[in-house]
Amino acid sequence: MSYYFAIVGTQDNPLFEYEFGTSKQGGDGQSRFTEQARHLNQFVLHSSLDIVEEVQWTSGQLYLKVIDKFFNNYISCFMTAGNVKLMLLHQPTAVAAGASTRNSTSVGVNPTSPQTEEAIKNFFTEVYENYVKAIMSPFYKVNMEIQSPVFRQRVAAAGRKYL
Amino acid sequence: MANLGPGKAAISKEQAGLRYPSNGKTIYHRPLHRSKTAELSQSSFAYLFSEMVSYAQRRVTGIQDLEKRLNLQGHPVGLKLLDLLLTREPARTQTRPLTIIALLHLIKINLWTHLFGRQADRLEKSSNPDTPDEYMIVDNEPLVNAYISVPREMSQLNCAAFVAGIVEGMCDGAMFPARVTAHTVGGKEEGEMWPGKTVFLVKFQPEVLEREALIGKG
Amino acid sequence: MASSKASRLGEETRMDKVNAELVVLTYGTIVAQLCKDFDSDYVEVNKQLDKMGYNIGLRLIEDYLAKSNTVRRCANFRETAEMIAKVGFKIFLNITPTITNWTSDGKQFSLVFDENPFADFVELPDDGRAQDELWYSNILCGVLRGALEMVQMQVEAHFISDVLRGNDTTEMRISLIRYIDDELPPEDD
């Protein structure tokens, strides 16, 4: 599985981006997006913001699960209280989607299994906690990019831990 | 979505030159809820607050300006507390407010308890049919007013304006844009029982009521 | 006064309390507002914070004397240091900074802050300057200066390190300039 994670501000502006791959099932944590897909990730994520806007007023849950699918890309979303969106595009790698693993429920392979859903929830929850730490600083203004390398490490660690 | 391309990221990373202590401790290492129940002396708050007010007074020309300024200063606190307080809710009640009432309850209960150790006294909807967009959060005895040592005639107004800003920040952050103002009403309605009684008037933007109507239908 | 007695005084002093985060966030808005008003001229922000602290110190001393039940003046500057760290800071910020690095003439010491509630949640702006120029908690220097002036001590106080700047400690240096009322007996230690 390859992941593209982004935090999207209230003006649909990106606050943070991070790309990684699964660390489960012996994954090396590296993403396997093709060069072409990589260029599309941002666009794909952005296109599902309309759907987020619909869903966010029908459910008060923070974790909105998979809200959109575009070909082989699944978009999961987590809304913060301040209506900033944590979004994760997950894309099963072509090889992993082969016959032998099709029925697998494992996090690294199946993008919609309950296990994956739960793992993504845990990932979002951990990132959210770090996000709140970032915005608590008196110098953080709403919709500011988060540039802290420590924050990036924290997101990476959450990715390794759960995904 | 504007591009945060790799080139730019690389540059900003090089510039990202914050130094950290050698133990590596940063804001991300500090448990978010460590100071949840921590307390400090009221006087410390009173001193800080009155100094904040007198500083603000030197930079404005009238009481309205002053209130606006204090409101603006409270606003980011409200934005921050919105997320902080929600992350402190138990998982099953950890939901974003979708309706005006849910939001106002969050303010009346969670925000007030966090800041002042008790809930606000009442929530009211405007009974005037011309102002269905107005709600009132009533505090009979605003705790913070009690020990603010700015000139008496201004103190209640001042402090409440800051709190109004916090409330407004919470409303705005939750996407219920509103204008929040504080009004001292003590003595008018209930004699001397609550001389400091303060009403926080929350006036929501039209789009909030429109959305609420739509959600109600759905 | 013995050091242990000062500690006990700090512990025993009962105070009305408020939520610590309210105080911390309020202080944060003050510093952020100053940075905005002075267009991130951090040297000026430090000055303003010191000035605010000074104003606070002038008024706080009464409160301190009342709450700590201190009746007699400190016998010397070392005792003053004890009272600042173990009573003053304990009462108002619920922390007890460590007193250290005395000069041999007993006129300069450091307060080292293992904890600093004001700095909770804070990360300085990553603008290449704030970590070199801004003393985030500078209000505390002013508070000491103002409060001690009210009890006839002219002091100079400034931070020399801050974990927010990436230093390993947060340390404030306090120097006695002179006792203001010369008719009072000089310190005899």
Automatic annotation (TrEMBL), chain A:
Listed Pfam families: Sedlin_N
SUPFAM superfamilies for this protein: SNARE-like
Gene Ontology, cellular component aspect: cytoplasm
Gene3D superfamilies, A to Z: 3.30.450.70
Matches recorded under CDD domains: TRAPPC2_sedlin (cd14825)
GO BP field: endoplasmic reticulum to Golgi vesicle-mediated transport
Name of protein: Sedlin
Species of provenance: Trichocladium antarcticum
Taxonomic placement: Eukaryota, Fungi, Dikarya, Ascomycota, Pezizomycotina
Automatic annotation (TrEMBL), chain B:
GO cellular component, one term: endoplasmic reticulum
Compartment(s) where it occurs, according to its Swiss-Prot or TrEMBL record: Endoplasmic reticulum; Golgi apparatus, cis-Golgi network
Keywords for this protein: Endoplasmic reticulum, ER-Golgi transport, Golgi apparatus, Transport
GO biological process: endoplasmic reticulum to Golgi vesicle-mediated transport
Domain of life: Eukaryota
TM ranges: none
Pfam family, one: TRAPP
Subunit structure: Part of the multisubunit TRAPP (transport protein particle) complex.
Family indicated by similarity: Belongs to the TRAPP small subunits family. BET3 subfamily.
Function per UniProt: Plays a key role in the late stages of endoplasmic reticulum to Golgi traffic.
PANTHER family: 41-2 PROTEIN ANTIGEN-RELATED, TRAFFICKING PROTEIN PARTICLE COMPLEX SUBUNIT 5
Name under which the protein is recorded: Trafficking protein particle complex subunit
Organism: Trichocladium antarcticum
The organism's taxonomic lineage, starting at the top: Eukaryota, Fungi, Dikarya, Ascomycota, Pezizomycotina
TrEMBL record, chain C:
Top-rank taxon, per record: Eukaryota
One protein family per Pfam: TRAPP
InterPro entries noted in UniProt: Bet3, NO_sig/Golgi_transp_ligand-bd, TRAPP_component
Any one Gene Ontology BP term: macroautophagy
Entry's localization field: Endoplasmic reticulum; Golgi apparatus, cis-Golgi network
Presence of the UniProt keyword Lyase in the record: no
GO cellular component, one term: TRAPP complex
TM annotation in the entry: none
Keywords, comma-separated and alphabetical: Endoplasmic reticulum, ER-Golgi transport, Golgi apparatus, Transport
Chief location bin: endoplasmic reticulum
Family, per entry: Belongs to the TRAPP small subunits family. BET3 subfamily.
Protein name, UniProt field: Trafficking protein particle complex subunit BET3
